[in-house]
Amino acid sequence: MPKFLAVLDVNTPPDLNKIMGLESAEADRVWELREAGVLHEIYLASDRSAAIIMLTEVDHAKAQAAIDSLPMVAADVLATRVIELSAWPEMTRMLNEHGEPHPAWWPA
To answer: Is 57 left (phi over 0), alpha (psi -120 to 50) or beta?
Structure first.
């Protein structure tokens, strides 16, 4: 199953009254998604202007539906992007056969 990264940016200017009115419902929905195994990790930007969510065990449509189900997204407080992640095949070229850094990529 692929992994997805969702970036949720606060629309500007932020409507603080709308945000404050949705905080409890947002927390409840995030908890539901976490318990369902859809939402794996969540982070906040240090300036609180964005949230980053890692979603697993879903396809793209379910990842997008999960993000769209968040009350702050539905209320247009947050703008979203859902990005499908893939393995970085070049990483295998950066490591030698023992899994150690290859000197051509990681000079001493």
So the answer is: left
The first and second tokens of residue 47, run together, are 């300036």
Question: 0.85 exceeded by the pTM?
Answer: no
The DSSP line for 78-95 is EEEEEEEE---THHHHHB
Backbone angles phi, psi at 39, to 5 degrees: -90, 120
In a domain, 42, yes or no: yes
The reply to whether omega before 13 is within 30° of 0 (cis) is yes
For 55, the 3-state DSSP assignment is strand
In this structure, the number of other CB atoms found within 10 A of the CB of residue 74 comes to 14
**pLDDT interval class at 14 (50, 70, 90):** confident
The C-alpha atoms of residue 11 and residue 15 are separated, in whole angstroms, by 8
Provide the CATH number for the domain around residue 22.
3.30.70.1060
How many domains in the chain?
A: 1
Write out the residue range of the structural domain in which residue 35 sits: 3-94
Is 45 within a domain? Answer: yes
